[in-house]
Amino acid sequence: MAAIYSGIHLKLKSAKTPWEDKLKLARFAWISHQCFLPNKEQVLLDWVSHALTGYYSKKLQFGAEIVEGLWSYLDDVLHSKKLRKLLEKGKIITIRFTMVQIINERIAACSSGVPHHVDMSSLPMVLSCCQGILMTPAFSIIYTSKCELLINLLSKLCLLACRRLKSLEALRSVQLFNVLVMVLNQYLVIQRQQTNQSRVFLQVCSSLLQPFLLLRHLLFSRSWLGEDEVSVRQHLSKETCNKIQTALQNGLFHPDFLISYKEELLQRNASQGKKTSFPKGLTAPTESILLKIADSDFFGSDLHLAVAANSIPMLYRLAVESYCKDGNQLLCFHIFSRFLDSVWFPDNGSVERNPGLLALDQLLNLILSNNIYNVSVDKIRCEGVQFARYRAVAEVLLTQPCPDMAAWFRCLRTLILLNHLIVEPDLDELVSLAWVDAEVTEPRVKKAQDSLLATLLETYTKLRQLPRVFKELRDIVSRPAADELRQSILSTALTKKLHECLLEVSSSQVLDIWDLILKRLELLIPDLAESYDISLKVLTMSTMLYAVLFNMRSLDSKAPVPVIRRAQALMDEMAGAAVVPLLRIDKASNGKDPPSWATSARTAGLVLGCTWVEVDHMLRLNCSGYVSPVTQHDGAEAGVWNFQPLLQAEEWELAGGGCELSCHLVQLFSLQRMKWTMMQTGTLTEAELHSLRSAAIFVVSSGRAGGSTCSQGWDGELSTLDRETSLVAHWHLLITNLALLVPHLPPEEVTYIAEAVVANLLEKGPQEVGQETGTVLSVPALCESLLHSTLLPEIRPLHQAVLLCLTQRVMDLMAATGMEWPSELSEQLTMSGHASQAEGHSNSQSWELLFSQLTSPQSTHLSTERPRLLPLSTEQLDIILRLLDLLSALSLDSLSYSDHLHCFLLLVSLVTTLKPGPEKSNTSRYLLILSKCYSLLTVLLTGAKMKAVFKLAHAGDILEKIVAPLFLVGSELSSLECPAWSELLHTLQCFLNYFVQKIVERRQSVCLNLEQFIAFLSKTWVNAEGKEKWQLTAEQLLMVALLTVSHVIGMKLQQSEKNRYKGSTLLALRTQLSSLLGPVLQSHFHRSGLVQTFTVPCVTTLLETELWLREEQSDAISEGRNEDKTGLEHANLYQSVCSQVLHQLASIHELEPLRTQLDFLRVFCSSSELCSDHNVKTAIPSMLCAVKALLAAPWMTSQFIRLLETELIGLLTSMSERCTDHQFYLLVKSIAQGIEVVHLSKGQQLGVVSSLILTTLLMKCLFRKNTEKIVRLTAPQIITALLVLCKKTASDEPLGCKITLLSLEALAVLIQKGEGILSNPYHVTLAFDALLCIPLDQLKLDEYARVFQAIHEVLFSIIQSQPKVLLNAAPTFLKCFNRLVLSVMHKGRQKGAGEKGMTAENDRVLDCARQVERMYARVASKPEEFAMFSAFMVAEYINELQKVTLNADVKKHLTEGVYHLLDLVSEGDLHFLNTLLQVGMREVFKDLHCNYVRYHKNKRQGEEKYVA
Known about the structure:
Elements: H1 2-5, H2 8-13, H3 19-31, H4 40-56, H5 64-78, H6 81-88, H7 97-111, H8 123-135, H9 137-145, H10 147-166, H11 175-193, H12 197-221, H13 230-252, H14 258-265, H15 285-293, H16 296-299, H17 304-323, H18 329-343, H19 350-369, H20 375-380, H21 385-399, H22 406-418, H23 427-436, H24 443-462, H25 466-478, H26 492-504, H27 507-524, H28 532-551, H29 561-588, H30 596-622, H31 644-648, H32 651-657, H33 660-678, H34 686-701, H35 726-735, H36 738-741, H37 747-764, H38 779-788, H39 796-816, H40 823-834, H41 841-854, E1 870-871, H42 874-889, H43 897-913, E2 914-915, H44 921-941, H45 946-950, H46 955-968, H47 979-1002, H48 1006-1024, H49 1028-1055, H50 1060-1088, H51 1095-1118, H52 1131-1144, H53 1151-1165, H54 1180-1191, H55 1198-1203, H56 1205-1218, H57 1221-1234, H58 1238-1241, H59 1245-1259, H60 1265-1289, H61 1294-1312, H62 1321-1332, H63 1341-1361, H64 1365-1387, H65 1399-1420, H66 1423-1426, H67 1430-1441, H68 1448-1462, H69 1467-1476, H70 1479-1504
Parallel strand pairs: 1-2
């Protein structure tokens, strides 16, 4: 065979052999073990390299298929496992330098701008070959040894990626970016290894800077397509950009270049030192960078500006990160200045300046965030060079504004934050261009504008120059302009900021602003006639003054007298010079259709008038030194009410069709008039009461013309109030003043408000109720807030009206379906709406008579004998659901007697009248309606007027009528598996529980009422038997009803031992229930098994009842009565249920079903007849196996076990009581064998976990005398097994940590049993070995906290329950405890500047420190055992304290604990410590002891004086 293949090398070199055959031979030679060639791998690699080199150098010629085959062959060789294994074994194989050059040339050709001349088909294989070379260290050395090759490759790959990103095709391959990231990683390694940093700078700047910047820009600006590869879009693009920035920072802004940058940029200011300290050949680095960025030929004219604007901020950030320290802020500023010149073109148009503005914004933010501009340093040391530059930038921004761009506003804001003096010379232009005259519509730009103006107000507030801003604002508003085109001056966000600023400035400055605006109003008002422009300016000024005065801090009695006098003078001036003249201008225009200027003047007068009245009220209430003009005149019409005659003639006209803002202000005036009238002392006259009623009616009726529903939003500002938002403003005014208006409104107006509220809530829809509306007001949101407010129940008429509106809508809907409401019911409901206050005996009798008529057998409405059920459509059911949702939001507990009965009868009517329609989709809606009805009925039963319900009829009758419809429509329910059915059953159970409890608590015909209900249930069951479609529903409803009644009676029986008569009555009822519940459960179990969650509780209740009756029978036997030898009636059912529960116990993942099934097993175990060895499936060993399987389930967590702990302990206690001594010994022995370490080697970790949990739970049980003896005999074996487990699993994986924690928990519980279980101290000392073997330093913080808690509990159990152990093992105990102290000190050290500490982690360590303090206090309470060791414990603490700097909170708790320890230290020990400790530790101890004496010892001694 060797002879056959020995000539392959000659055939590969022969020119006569076809290239197809050569490729086949080469592939065969590579994979074949029968081909013998000297250095075969190197020969084949050289052959393919020579072939490709010859082809691309034009020395060899062959077809494209051969070229593709050669590249494919090279790719296979480079990625083959054979080659990798040979290289790992140390065989030397190299690749030719020319091959690497060919790869670079191919990539360069594909990345060129003329790709149609290049064959792109081989590019994937070329990239793959490049990747194979870079992945192989033996080959990649050719790139690392010759850095120019790698830089050339990186540059061409970047250009190739740029070309790919520019195309519109989707990026479906990640190969290119994978190779690019790999090359970047390789280059970063070489870059860090370079010693000549000047060479690195030149390489980066000449070859890599431009490709890097272009690629980064294209990655950031690409509009990614859905077809693009996800890994490129989400991961590789970000990784590429990050590595590019790292390469640029290391290459362009290395720390060694700092002197070069200073030499270039700080020549005038730098000291003329030696110039030989900076790298040779690196001159003007900034200029070199900027020249590359300015090369538009490389980037292209269409991308040049965008690339520059995107790159300059990034480069400046890298420069700042490298050099902005050690006082180099001036250098960073000069770099900023040079960079800014390259990207900021103030002479270009706005379209071209867009990227420049964005770059300027980022540059200024870097200046601000890095504290590069220091005002004082710049002015004193640098002659204001920075200020001049920023001032020039501000001038350009204001001379060529771009208010349509958010970046323009952000730049101005940053300049203000740098220094307000930068923009102060042009403050008027700033206010004009960025505030008053700015036309901003886009929300993003509006947010930037609000941020700028908020910063402006905040800055001048801190400077105490806020009036200066308002002076400029006033002057700008007063300039000639088209005011109707201007937007509102104050937005919601700006008004909020103005409010904050006005609260910070002094009252005198607020008065200055008031005076400024008022003076300008006095100048404008005389020229107002026939001038629409001036009227708009007056309105703007008025709105501005309104905003200032409504948001300022009120003057109080502590205000200086000159300030109060000035405020009073301004009030007089405002009334006489502004309010009255403006209203008189309106009064002078007698036409019905006043001109627009008069309308604006009227609105301005109303704004100022409302403002004047509110400020007058505010000052009268808060400032005792203020004298209102009202009190300076005689008569009721004096002072402020001189405005009233000017309004009376126009009020109703305004309400009908004037300006929306005017209408709103007239309503506000009416409310102010009502407040003023109600503030008068004494009894109100009839005229005043009439005035209040008229004003209230006027406010409510003002919004009728606009309707009652509106989805438009309003921000709450007067300046934005228009025709679309006027209705929102009206309802906002109405709802916020309901407490003032409703007492003076007639019933029809209150009903109108209630109907509007309900209509808006229904308009909003259930899916929108409860959604956040932010700062925008809307009518539905206002109505929703009213519905959920605590104020609505206090406004009794409106609360009742809303309730009646909801109930009336339900009645109308039912009437539309053909339901005939009894006339007596309609009359009584109507009467309750108008006479709810007259709640006397006659009213109660009328309700009782009505209910008796409705529930009589002759009635066809609520009678169960001849029911008339109404099917509803889907739309009607949805409406009822909405109405019930609104009804549930009302506070039904605060209803009156009549309203309570009204609501109760309505809900009963719904329950007894509705039935599901023929569509299956209606069934779930019908069930939801029933669920809500029963939920509301439960609320009414728990309310204050609960007794009113039981006055309607006998409780048994009421209960029967409410529950009966569910059985009547049973055959209609087709989707019992839907969630709504389970919800209905749960709600029904809650209702029955409350109702039956009330029946028992009232003690009025308890037996009669419950027997009637039980008889009804029995009759229902008899009717249901044999009807398959009906029986399933009846079974489930009967099970819920019988379970609930049995549970209530059982609870009352436990509380009625003293009342034997009542106990016997309830016992008889329980007997009847069990006789009915048994057949129902038998039928349901044979039909459905344990599908329903309430089946097991029902069986448990039945079993408890039978056991209770058996106990009563045994008591009767002991009293000499006849003996009943019959067994449990439903024993077979209990056995079947127990068998099924044990089978599915481990597969249940929900808490409540598990609790009910464990509770059933507990009751089952308590019966000697059921739990016996005769039935192997339900015997105690089977139960123990099922519980172990449950605890070993993978989904079972420690938190879940804690929630089930009560049930599990109860079950184990019941099992221990049922076992014989031998059975209990076997049970304990099986559990103890389950925690042996041999199970871990068999892979049974979950079994060990379950056995550990069972051990812990078993030790928490209460034992009988015999069983306690068995546990005492087994305890040494258990402790030994726990010790071995701890040693085995201490350093294992998370499951091992879990086993360690469970072992420690079991150990702590066992030790807590005391000396009765562990009588030998030696067995307890074994626990110390377990504690010492557990490492604490290698654990993660979560695991550490849990292990710390477990060890602490073991130690605390020993010191509390095993006092004899400490007599001989105190040093070992302290050794274990000292490990905890040292670990807390290590975990609780202060975080360094570069470390990140989370609050949750700090809380865990702090909790451990608290436990250490607790243990120190416990140790100090045992002076006999620990006094002689206290000094050594203090010394250990101080020694460790020298090594770490503790967190303040952790140190506080540890120090408090050591204080307790110092209580045990004697004077001799103190002298010993002062002698033993070293100098530094001695100082720490002295400080500690001084603080102990000062803060702890004296306090303790003072407390001991008062201790008996």
